[in-house]
Fold this protein.
Amino acid sequence: AAAITAVRPAGREPTDTTGWTKGIVRGDVKIAVSILDKIQSISVVVEELRNPVGPDGAVRHVSRLIVPVKMEVGTPTFEVRDIPFSDHPYTVRLYSPGLNGSDRTVTIDEKTPLHEDLELRITPGAPFTVLLRDQDRNPYAGIDVRLLPAGDPPGRPMLQGTSNNFGSVVFESVLAGDYQVVTAQGNQPFETPQLVYVTAPPLGNMVQGQSCVLTVQRGVPLEVSVVCGGYGVAEAKVHFTASDRSKLTQFDVTTDFGGRVTVQRLLPGTWLVEAVVDGYERSMRQITVVEGQPPPPLEFRLVRIR
């Protein structure tokens, strides 16, 4: 192999990498002073960036190494050795539970087997506010909001809250990355989930709040009852499917002990409604909902299967 050297900016003598068959990454960990008491542990994850499933469908080995970082006096440092050479890049990422860890992408091969000038950071989560508005831009209170992590980095928790009288939900500490914002009331979904991105705060600066605004249309309530022989059927599943939209929109509700259930918010349009109970024939109805005009109560009269 050709003689390859690497130099660290701090003035370290060049490292002779002649004959190396595996790589090494070294670097420093910068930490915001405000979160020193929140750090439980820090690890460095070095992972090969390639699909674990090949074009032929076969499962391929993806190199992944995890090394703990020792917390000592001064700036923490890290070193990960024995990284296999690869035609694919590697991501070098810090992981600390409940905190943001930055990452770098490097190449580990015969030409560049050594990286010793990496600087990675640990920063706190950022406040994130979801503002809910109806079609007239009025605050929408009482809506359940969930932030579901999407993609990398892994290990982020799901967060949830309910909008207040100002139509806002404040999440005090959200880790950086993509999230799906899911809105619902009880078990009844609202708008299509929206993807948002939360950025990590700069190291050493005051944490800036971030926000997004969601428009949630107000619908109308609908009372549904499922009966058989004059008695309410408990635990009946009532399935709603919008039949006038290009995108599939559907949800289920379940009747109470008296065979009744109220849909709190049904959007205007045409809906196919079906009552399904084991041991009974299915019953289906189509209704049209007009904005501002709650439809009359919907009753399903089921017949037992003999």
Summary: DSSP finds no helices and 26 strands in the chain. Residues 1-10 have pLDDT under 50 and may be disordered. The first strand starts at residue 5 and ends at 6. The two ends are 81 Å apart (CA to CA).
